[in-house]
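Collaborator request, handled under Task 6.
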Amino acid sequence: MATLIDTIGNTPLVEIKRLNPNPNVKIYAKLEGNNPGGSVKDRAALNMIRSAIERGEIKPGTKLIEATSGNTGIALAMMARLFDLEIELVMPSNSTRERTLTMEAFGAKVTLLEGIEQCRDYAEEKAATGEYYLMNQFANPDNYGAHIKTTGPEIWRDTEGKITHFVSAMGTTGTIMGNSIYLKQQNPEIRIVGCQPTEGSSIPGIRRWPVAYLPKIFDASKVDRVIDISEADATLMARKLAHTEGIFAGMSSGGALTAAIQLASELKEGVIVFICCDRGDRYLSSELFG
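Structure tokens returned to the collaborator:
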């Protein structure tokens, strides 16, 4: 009999056929919305909490705190409940209501502040008092370690080692770092492509960080190319994913597919895998599908 933790990972890899402009290139979506918490962040949340418990850093009664734009918070709220831990999640006030309600449904305390940078400062200040354990996804190697252990091996297995390009949004950068490390160990020729917003674009899950807040786990040498994605293109592609391919996902997934399609149009042949990082239902109160 499986536990909830057993259902994290081994998500489907499905081919994008109608939106692919090049018949000589395969594009596959890694459907991370199929995780029980609805996003790729379930993997990181589990690995961060379980690893800290194994090291003795988190004990019964430890209070957790974390700044999040949404998906990591939902995943951590779910994991905290499974491990009987209290957690406070600090989110930007413009986050969708679905995110806040989901975290609160798991029993988390949610604090809303103006922006993610302020949220990070607040969480670090409270952790500095010694009363909270900061998960610190932005500097925690267990974040990207989850993808070395699980996501990367799944992609390698399910493409039978034929993957040529890996595409991911860049937020905390844990997903792209971990997959880069694993996949390049298997084949150094695999190209790792990240997505960031164009100047002035706001895309949940994809960030262009100020230098002072750049995630410490990010190593630019592990990313071969960065493609800038506009808010309009990410929105349009998320809608096309649902209307054309029947895949209901968020705006960052639309951004990653935009980059994958651009790559496919440039290649003679190849196998592209992009991370479809969450489900679209947590954006229904936004204008994404309006």
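The cover message to the collaborator said: "Residues 144 and 178 are 4 Å apart (CA to CA). The beta strands are 13-15, 25-31, 63-67, 86-92, 109-113, 133-134, 165-169, 191-197, 225-229, 270-276. Please let us know whether this matches your experimental observations."
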